[in-house]
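Weekly structure sync, notes
Attendees: PL, DS, HV (note-taker this week)

Item 1: Diaminopimelate decarboxylase
DS walked through the input record. Source organism listed as Amycolatopsis taiwanensis. Sequence as pasted into the shared doc:
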Amino acid sequence: PRNAAREPDGAVRLAGVDVRELAETYGTPLFVVDENDFKSRCAEHARAFGDPALVHYASKAFLCTEIARWVAEQGLSLDICSGGELAVALRAGFPPERITFHGNNKSVAELEAAVDAGVGTIVLDSFFEIARLADVAARRDVVQAVLVRVTVGVEAHTHEFIATAHEDQKFGFSLASGDAAEAVRRVLNASSLKLVGLHSHIGSQIFDADGFEVAARRVVGLLAELHKEHGDTALESLSTVDLGGGLGIAYTADDDPPPPEFLAEQLRIMVAKECEHEGLEVPRIAVEPGRAIAGPGTVTLYEVGTIKHVELGHGQVRRYVSVDGGMSDNIRTALYDAVYDCRLVSRASDDGGAAEVNAALSRVVGKHCESGDIVVRDSWLPDNLGPGDLLAVAATGAYCYSMASNYNRQPRPAVVAVRDGEARLLLRRETVEDMLYLEAL
Ligand code: LLP
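Item 1 (cont.): predicted structure, written out as tokens:
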């Protein structure tokens, strides 16, 4: 988080709040969201893309009512992909016209709820869905604005991207096969649907603009073909190219992701150049960052419970540090081999100096019943670490709480927001009663 600082006694303050106080008041594991960090990243994206409404916060990264309010207040739009996310957004009073609804298998009930709520745009993902939504909208006498999701044959990851002719995955309409052009034909033929844009999403945790640029070039290429086929008038309302999410963040000091302005600038240049080449009017460029807004500003606080030294042979020892959460609040290490940074935050290390001094290579593990339950695979933590010490894992704001589970009947952690020396509870800690509430017998 941007507002973290170490006190002379070694304890860390997050936005002016002592982590020991947070642990005392709210318990651990605890997600601590730096509110100003989150909001400033919203504002940075808004500035970079020239209009806050063109930045759709991807709520799958992390959503609760208060987060939806922050996003609304910053003027951003909201990307949702389920009826549940829609319900949270509406509960927060999020302006429905700034909501975009994604997903490869939205139910009829979800489509109906979205149209009834006045959701701004719905991203069409299959031929079945085009017919389904056209019907839902027609029965309500509504003309629903839609985007067509195009699979451009680009797959991007942190430091690499692959541009192929087609992509073997479930989302969108393939550009190469002609399905994307056919989807547009069907949308233009449906009087209850209005085509306002094309959409492409190439991946997540991406560090360079190359993959986005290839995607943008291919989407503009399709746009040009569509104009040739249908003429400018038929496509009058098609004004937006949405290039999805995916901008990466730093999980450790080794990561150096580009700022949003860099990506925005590269995309602007690329799209403008391609449009000029094709003789097209330049569309508005929208994006859907989730991780880059929610990720960096949150830490998870854990309490150390037990420590074990395991002989690895050749005189090597691994120190296992067990904390009171694990794969139920952060499955990313187990699922994606994600790498995190972890620090002792409740005191100084044994020598009273930086926590890195006199450190032992440790593996921070959870309390779940499987050996893959690893939070941080390798972390240098102070020699004299012991039960009761608080550890913080950084950059856990995206895809941790939102992917949390009740594995081993572990209640989900609480989430607090910190700002200017004050803490506020956003989501209370789940209780055993909450889980028993679902028991039908
Ligand atoms: N838009 C669409 C259509 C998406 O599918 C996604 C992410 C985003 C935007 C936001 O992407 P972001 O800016 O956050 O990278 N659970 C995985 C990430 C899955 C992302 C799925 N889609 C993880 O923890 O790394």
